[in-house]
Amino acid sequence: MPGLYASLNASVSALDAQSLAVDTAGKNLANVNNSSYARETVNFGSLGTVQTANGPESMGLVALGVEQDRSSVLDSQVRDENSLSSYYQTQQSAYQQAQAGLGQTVSSSSATSSSSSSGGLGSAIDGLFNAFQSFASNPTDTGQRQALLGAASVLTAQLQSTDQNLAQVQSGLNTEITSDVSTVNNLLGQIANLNGQIARFEAGNPGSAVDLRDQREADLEQLANKMPVTVTEGTNGEDQITASDTSGNPVVLVNLATVTGPVTYSGGQVSAGSPATVLGLSSGSIQGAISASTGGVQTLRDNLNSLTNQLVTSVNTVYNPTGATGDFFTSTGTTAATISLASGLNTSNLKASDGGAAGDNTVALGIAQLANQQFTTASGDQIDGTFSGFYANSVSGFGQTLADVNSQVTEQTNIQTLVTSQRDSLSGVSLDEEMANLLKYQNAFQASSRVFTTINDLLSNVVNTMGVGAA
To answer: In 3D, which of 237, 214, 210, 216 has the Cα closest to residue 23?
Structure first.
């Protein structure tokens, strides 16, 4: 009789264990496409040897708990590679927008064609000097005067428009950075909150808060997309989150269930922690946007400003050699955003010479010849090379930057895919495997149920027999 009761208890334990296994397999199947989910498995054990009147028997299967098939090393690698991917992809997007702002396709190997592509700024530069050459050949022709002013207006409009487009790209990047910083602070708060929940749930039962850990890992990966972080798990399951300062020293962002200090952005720098410390970010979308804005895009704008300054200064020097007869460009408009034709300049007062006879073309010819002049910064000029050559080289350099980033995105995507696949081989859900497990556990449950029914029938027979004998 005691043996039957012990066996009945053992079969109940087995039913509970197989039921949990069925539920776990079903949960795995439901999350087969959830990238943040780590496959769960049931740890089985035994109730041990149960002493009965008929000797020892081991029928008790027990579920010791549910654990995740997760590796902290692989999770860390995935976060790091995702952060790098986000960094390069953000730069790529910014440079593609800047390319569109130039109004022409850029290439690292086509400087000449870039400078003269139809409709581009390089074409407008060539157009101005060609118009001065035509004006010099026929300085009294009204049509040539109109064509020259038209070409100059096209160039100034192109410079202003291009600078405005690039400024809008930078403004968009700054907005993106501000949004990402806000997202980071929200994620840090969520992670701190999850840390507290995990610590309470796992008190005395480490690793049992599997769903909360999935949520936290998803938040950590989103955080890594924005900025690189280091994750260290404490004894109670809480993660400490740190970033590095400009010297590589750790700055604590989240300690246990507390956010130590908000992340802020100002003047091209990201700060965090308590006290606030400037971070040395090396990846993530925030640093990608900062690098693109202050690097490639700003360099392009600086080159346009240098080109404009040299153009305005050189043309005005030839056009108004004495400084008393009026400039061609507004002398104060020496940036791409401010360049403009001198006030009041029109076809009737446009000069081919500085006070010469009606057919004198010395000024117009001198300006036309500027197209081939070699400038050098070593002599105090703003640019190196000719106007068209300098612009072509600037565009070519930007094209090389874009090409490099495109290559880095491709390579990093391959690395990210490889690391993610390695983690998926451990933590990912296999549809075939889980379907097989589900059938296995269902059959095991049915077998345990039959054992339970058989033992229950035996007990009923014993109880009934005992009742008859007593009567």
So the answer is: 210
